[in-house]
């Protein structure tokens, strides 16, 4: 099957393109958000091609994978008038939790029976109102990086993108307590450089690390003693699942899908920051405890978020969507 999709989320796409299909991602001269093309910091197989919009007009496409509302019109224009869901089978992948009036949030493709709306968590499916649009859940799948936990650095690891702009959404305001009461914090991600000044801490307690290639990020996380996940309102961060695969114990806010992802013995979940700070402190102080919890976290992640299950589930959704078109 030849699938057209936009390079929107690098980590998720890296898993998706491991399947037995041909994948096409648009590329523009500026490599803007609608034309990022091939990933530069993630390993993608050769079956993924980047093509400029002008070469998509006459391209035979079996499926369009949409991820943002404006891609409906964009795909129609770049595919020479072929309409996703009507002239070419299409699936809309929703990565995120709803925003605004959450209990009553209508999805942008609600009441589109010609599309299939796929959520990455059951929590998201529950909270989005899709109307008559058929919905499915395909939980995340991770390429296993291997058990790398060393934990030689008695520090807290956090992975977060744009923590200053997103603020309370990503739990940025909570980092101060961890850095001052639990252990020094290493924050990895995009747009983290101004973080120390933002929270009023020096670099000795909170160190910002700009975006790293995936393999380097995994190595860096595995050297820390515990992984802390603090978003208040998010889907299910792939960085959390990657940390679990690496064998790190995790400390996370008990919100959205985290309660499903982290079973007892794999980490500590709570809506009380006092409980989480205390748990991080205990893991940092006790390497053996951290390793034992990390081993259970890794097994839980392998059991539920393995790549083979993920690809199998997606193959089924794609085949059903083509058959129904």
CATH superfamily of the largest domain: Glycogen Phosphorylase B
The ordered H/E elements are: EHEEEHEEHEEHHEHEHEHEHEHHH
Percentage of residues in DSSP E strands? 15-25%
Spatial separation of the terminal alpha carbons? 14 Å
- How many separate structural domains? 2
Number of helices: 12
Relative helix content: 25-40%
Q: Which secondary-structure class do the elements indicate?
A: alpha/beta
pLDDT averaged residue by residue: 94
Question: According to CATH, what is the class of the largest domain?
Answer: Alpha Beta
Low-confidence stretches: none
Q: The CATH topology of the largest domain, please?
A: Rossmann fold
Query: Strand order of the main beta sheet, please?
Result: 3-2-1-4-5-6-7
CATH architecture annotation of the largest domain: 3-Layer(aba) Sandwich
Q: Report the sheet with the most strands, covering strand number, pairing sense and barrel closure.
A: 7 strands, parallel
Briefly say what this structure is.
This protein is an alpha/beta fold and 325 residues long.
What would the keywords be for this entry?
seven-stranded parallel β-sheet, elongated, alpha/beta, six-stranded parallel β-sheet, Rossmann fold, single chain, 2 domains, 325 residues
């Amino acid at each position: 099957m030849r699938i057209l999709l936009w390079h929107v989320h690098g980590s998720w796409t890296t898993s998706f393109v491991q399947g037995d299909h041909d994948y096409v991602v648009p590329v523009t001269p500026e490599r803007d958000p609608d034309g990022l093309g091939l990933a530069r910091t993630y390993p993608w197989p050769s079956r993924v091609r980047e093509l400029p919009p002008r070469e998509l007009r006459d391209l035979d496409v079996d499926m369009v994978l949409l991820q943002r509302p404006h891609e409906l019109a964009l795909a129609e224009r770049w595919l020479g008038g072929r309409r996703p869901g009507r002239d070419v089978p299409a699936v809309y992948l929703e990565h995120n939790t709803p925003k605004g009036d959450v209990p009553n949030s209508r999805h942008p493709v609600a009441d589109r029976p010609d599309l299939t709306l796929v959520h990455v968590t059951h929590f998201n499916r529950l909270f989005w109102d899709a109307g008559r649009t058929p919905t499915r859940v395909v939980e995340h799948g991770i390429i296993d990086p291997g058990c790398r936990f060393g934990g030689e650095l008695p520090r807290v690891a956090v992975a977060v993108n744009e923590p200053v702009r997103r603020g309370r959404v990503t739990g940025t305001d909570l980092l101060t307590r961890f850095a001052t009461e639990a252990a020094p914090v290493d924050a990895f991600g995009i747009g983290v450089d101004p973080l120390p000044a933002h929270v009023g801490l020096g670099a000795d307690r909170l160190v910002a690390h700009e975006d790293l290639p995936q393999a380097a990020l995994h190595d860096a996380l595995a050297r820390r003693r515990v992984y802390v996940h603090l978003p208040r309102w998010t889907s299910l961060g792939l960085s959390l699942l990657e940390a679990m695969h690496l064998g790190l114990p995790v400390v996370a806010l008990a919100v959205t899908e985290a309660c499903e992802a982290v079973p007892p013995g794999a980490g500590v979940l709570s809506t009380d920051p006092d409980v989480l700070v205390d748990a991080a402190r205990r893991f940092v102080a006790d390497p053996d405890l951290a390793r034992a919890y990390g081993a259970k976290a890794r097994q839980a992640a392998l059991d539920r978020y393995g790549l083979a299950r993920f690809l199998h589930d997606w193959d089924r959704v794609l085949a059903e969507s083509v058959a129904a078109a």
